[in-house]
User: What shape does this take?
Amino acid sequence: MDNWGLGAWLKSLSGVADSTRAVYARDADAAAGWLHEAGHASPASVDRRALRRYLADLGSRGYAARTITRKASVLRRYFDWARRTGRVEADPTLGLAAPRGPSRLPQVLKDDQIHTLIEKPARAGDDDARDARDLAIVELLYGSGLRVSELCGLRHEDLNLSRLEVRVWGKGAKQRLVPLSEPAVDALRDWLAHHRRVFVTPDTPDAAVFLNQRGRAMTPRDVRRVLDRRSVVPTHPHALR
Assistant: This one.
C-alpha cells in the first residue's frame, strides 16, 4: 500500500492520541485494501462512486451506522491530506454521505481538546487561506456561541468589528446582536482582508462572509468538515456552544 502514503498521513496527524491514531490506521488500511481489490492501485484513481460502493459494502456486511460514519470521517481526513500533498487532484469525499448513527447529545470537548481545535499547529502543505477561514469559523462558534446556520448565513453588513459585535438571524427570522471576542475579530479581519479573495469565483455571492472551496457560501456540512479537520476527537458544532 505504499502508493497510498498511509504512514506519511498518520505521521502528519499531530495532536492525535495513540489510540485514536491506531483506529485511523485500521480504518484507512481496510479502506485502501478494499479499494485496491476494486481496481484502485492508488488514491489518484478513486472517485466518489468508488467510496460510496465501499460504504455500501460495509453496510451490507452488517457494520453499524455509527461505525460507517466514523470510517467515512477517516476517509475525509485522508483524502483532504492527499489533495494537499498532491496525491490526488480533487478530494473525492466532497459530497460523500454516510448513514447517520443513533441520535445522541454532542460530545462536550475538554479544555485541551478545545485548545487543539483553536490552536491547530501548521503543517507542511497546509492551505493558509483555508486555515484562516477555519480559524475564524471556530472562533465564532466557540467564542460567540453562534449556531451553525447563523454562521453560514452571515453577510458583510452583519459584521461590526469596530464595536465587537455581529448581527445574526435566528429561527423565525429573528435578529439578535452577539458580542464578538477579540480573537474572533482578529481572525475575521485576517480572513476578510487577506484570504477570502482566494476562494472568490465569478459565481461567488458578494455578501457571503464565509466561502467554501467552490466559492459558494458555506453550508452546515462544510462547517462539519472544518471541525473534522481540526478536532482530535469526533465533535459537532453544537458542542462548541
Remarks:
- Residues 18-37 form the longest helix (20 residues).
- Residues 2-84 form a domain with the DNA polymerase; domain 1 fold (CATH 1.10.150).
